[in-house]
Design brief:
The structure is a single chain. This protein is an alpha/beta fold and 374 residues long. It has helices at residues 72-75, 80-99, 111-115, 119-130, 139-149, 186-191, 219-225, 232-245, 269-279, 286-289, 296-316, 328-341, 354-366; strands at 34-39, 43-52, 55-65, 104-109, 135-136, 160-166, 171-177, 208-215, 262-267, 293-295, 346-350. The longest helix is centred in the C-terminal third of the chain and has 21 residues, at 296-316.
């Protein structure tokens, strides 16, 4: 499948709100709860949260590797086993939603369901067995939600921003021009993108979407394409080269921009795992990872260590884990390719993504978040 992009693409003062982390107790008389579920090619993840100030606090969460897209690359279908695993995970989510009496929710599925010929059958099965209604979203919405979730991590100096969301089945890249927006207003300008990449005419300076692309290669789909390559290092090199080839049409700016005014924010399990490995964490700590800035040299050092470990070593490494060991090298190949392509040697790590974007979008639409510019 070819990368997707739109026709005619182009046209905070407060601390970053807490997102993710451990569930927190609700205060008496708390506002209505919101839920966001992201069903990807590899994982099913959900957050339940309440609005607090300009952000939200997480009340409950769920995450499980369901491998919904396993075998999809060859068959074009979601397998019976994958669907059964996913429905079981969705039942747990349904129980949590019922327990917390959540009424406002958005439950979305991404690349695996966009590509599978039996996706409609699967969505109907989920509804029949759990009562939950999945919405299969388009790549543009997936990209947009990832962008707004990262707004609090944007540096005030940033004039050109690239947000990269490495998923299981696809990778979304969005390039924003913030040069017309006052430094203190840039996070809020990005948040306003929740209503769409093409903004209505306004006198307020806006974050301009220069270009975006959805590459149908994520950690699971890229790995499947090179399953027949036995040598670990050769497979990694081929995956990185192949992903870079799929970026050939995405070059919003051909001239090199000053590195101090260009920022890449990466959001994905791959990026946070690499960050945890760089920090030498024995136990994952979101507060140390989210917002961390890594150099390309530091990223390369971690990737070389993964290659030196080999498959067995990666499986035993607690920072990688048994669920991710088979996919970490395809994610690392994508990450390395990205760092080769653009004029910066730093990456900002975001432990946030589609779920947080879904929550922000719902809460912003309902007007329950405080205005960060107030």
């Amino acid at each position: 499948m070819a990368p997707k992009r739109p026709q005619g693409a182009g046209a905070t003062k407060t601390k970053a709100p807490r997102m993710g982390g451990k569930p927190v107790p609700r205060a008496p008389g708390s506002p209505e709860l919101y839920a966001a579920l992201d069903l990807g090619t590899n994982s099913c993840r959900m957050l339940i949260a309440e609005p607090r100030g300009a952000g939200f606090h997480v009340v409950d969460s769920f995450s499980k590797s369901v491998q919904l897209g396993l075998g999809l690359e060859k068959s074009g279908k979601l397998s019976r086993g994958s669907m059964t695993r996913t429905v079981q995970a969705m039942r747990i989510c349904q129980q949590k939603l019922k327990r917390h009496k959540v009424k406002r929710m958005r439950l979305v599925a991404t690349e695996a369901c966009r590509r599978a010929v039996n996706a409609r059958e699967f969505v109907q099965r989920v509804h029949h067995e759990t009562g939950l209604r999945l919405d299969i979203i388009e790549p543009e919405e997936e990209a947009r939600l990832a962008v707004i979730s990262c707004a609090p991590l944007v540096s005030p100096k940033t004039e050109n921003l690239l947000v990269v969301d490495i998923g299981g089945g696809s990778t979304e890249l969005v390039w924003l021009d913030l040069s017309a927006v006052a430094r203190e207003d840039r996070p809020q300008a990005i948040m306003r993108l929740h209503s769409g990449f093409k903004q209505a005419a306004s006198d307020i300076p806006e974050a301009r979407v220069v270009d975006w692309i959805s590459v149908p290669l994520g950690v699971a789909t890229l790995r499947e394409q090179f399953n027949d390559v036995d040598d670990d290092s050769a497979r990694f090199a081929l995956m990185s080269w192949f992903f870079e080839e799929n970026l050939s049409d995405f070059s919003p700016y051909h001239a090199t921009e000053p590195t101090e005014r260009f920022q890449i924010i990466g959001t994905s399990g791959t990026v946070t795992t690499v960050a945890a490995s760089h920090l030498g964490l024995k136990r994952y700590d979101r507060t140390k990872v989210d917002g961390l800035r890594m150099t390309s040299g530091q990223i390369d050092t971690v990737i070389r260590s993964y290659l030196a470990m080999g498959p067995g070593g990666r499986r035993a490494d607690p920072r990688i884990g048994s669920d991710r060991h088979a996919l970490i090298m395809s994610g690392a190949a994508i990450l390395q390719a990205l760092m080769r392509c653009w004029p910066t040697n730093r990456l900002s790590v975001a432990d946030r993504g589609l779920r947080e974007g879904l929550l922000y979008a719902q809460m912003s639409a309902d007007g329950v978040l405080e205005d960060q510019t107030a």
